[in-house]
Amino acid sequence: MSAESGISTFRDAGGLWNKYPVQQVASHEGWLADPELVTEFYNSRRAELIKTSPNDGHRLVAELERDYDVTVVTQNVDNLHEQAGSSEVIHLHGELMKMCSSRDVDNPRFHVTLTADNYRVEPGTTAGDGSLLRPFIVFFGESVPMISIAADKAAEADIFIIIGTSLNVYPAAGLVDFVRRGVPIYLIDPKPVAAPSRSNITHIHKGASEGMRELMNILATSTE
Questions:
Q1: What is the set of active-site residues?
Q2: I need a labelling partner for 11 at 20 to 30 A (CA). Which of 19, 35, 191, 224 fits?
Q3: What domains sit in the chain, N to C, each tagged with a CATH number?
Q4: pTM over 0.85
């Protein structure tokens, strides 16, 4: 979703996982082994984020709120949906602009929200409970606290839109299984995606912005 804004992807060719071993910068074991490296890795990701802006795909998702009750469920850790104007965003994999206690990750008392003017965290900085301040990111192997809330939203949906995901990363990829039979599903991705074999899936073979423009036309036509 955010690739068009210039945000480095993780799994594509040339993505971050080709440059940084997953276990080194995105696992609890990696954090314990070298918290300074992990802290600086996410400092770099934030430095990249503050130089970017939402793309048309983000803006068109936000524009859907003019006519629909919209919940955005994202695997991305950036805040570009919020910047574009989306009012309800569920971050499955954490939030890049937040830090948390390394002892009590999900305790909001110890969450720290960073800003574009103050995005760097010095290695060794401590949280309110005295533990090291760590990125508020769901590391590989950790539970995904927001997945049940996202599943409930998927089960309530009258229209389900999937944008720019391989549908290979679980548990997020399993959300489509909660969508009720008969609910239209729109899949926007320029590449082939191994989507569930359901007759109500429309695959728009385009990038996020171009695909959202086509979807907006489809939705406008369907309501006429």
A1: 93
A2: 35
A3: 3-222 (3.40.50.1220)
A4: yes
